[in-house]
Amino acid sequence: MALTFDNETHDFGRVKKGENVEHTFKFTNTGDVDIIMELVSGCECSEIIYKEGAKFKPGETGEIKVIFHSDEEEKGKVNKTLDILLENINPKNGYQFIYELKYNAILF
């Protein structure tokens, strides 16, 4: 079972404080079983749009959109992480699958 992302990181570059910027992370289920997306979480400065509870069959694609609200952060370099929790259980360790996406920006 695997989610394969086009990119696992995104650099917004220089963002003016108070500006809202967005990026869409695209993925494909490259495994051989259905994947169910249970939860995607991030910081209070991030609005995350995804299909909660969506099932992705092998070969299907999906996306997670993040809107970064820069007014919530101090000026300077910002590094943030989105955590993705799948309903699927990893047979190797008995825990749910977790993936991380990262984005960064420089606020001025």
Give the tags:
five-stranded mixed beta sheet; 108 residues; mainly beta; Immunoglobulin-like; four-stranded antiparallel beta sheet; single chain
Q: Number of helix segments?
A: 0
- Topology-level CATH name: Immunoglobulin-like
What is the CATH superfamily classification? Answer: Immunoglobulins
Rg is 15 Å
Which architecture name does CATH use? Sandwich
What is the CATH domain class?
Answer: Mainly Beta
Major β-sheet strand ordering: 2-9-8-4-6
Strand fraction equals over 45%
Portion of residues within helices: under 10%
Helix-strand makeup class:
mainly beta
Low-pLDDT runs of 5+ residues are none
List the quaternary state of the chains. single chain
Quick one: biggest sheet? 5 strands, mixed
What's the number of domains?
1
The shape, in one word, is elongated
Average pLDDT level: 94
Question: What is the distance, rounded to the nearest whole angstrom, between the alpha carbons of the first and last residues?
Answer: 41 Å
Task: Give an account of the 3D structure.
With 108 residues, the protein is mainly β. It has one domain: Immunoglobulin-like (Sandwich), CATH 2.60.40. 0% of the residues lie in helices and 63% in strands. It has no helices and nine strands. The strands form two sheets. The protein has a five-stranded mixed sheet with strand order 2-9-8-4-6, with no helix packed on it. Strand 8 (76-89) and strand 9 (96-107) form a beta hairpin. It is elongated and about 45 Å long.
Short description:
By secondary structure, the protein is an all-beta fold.
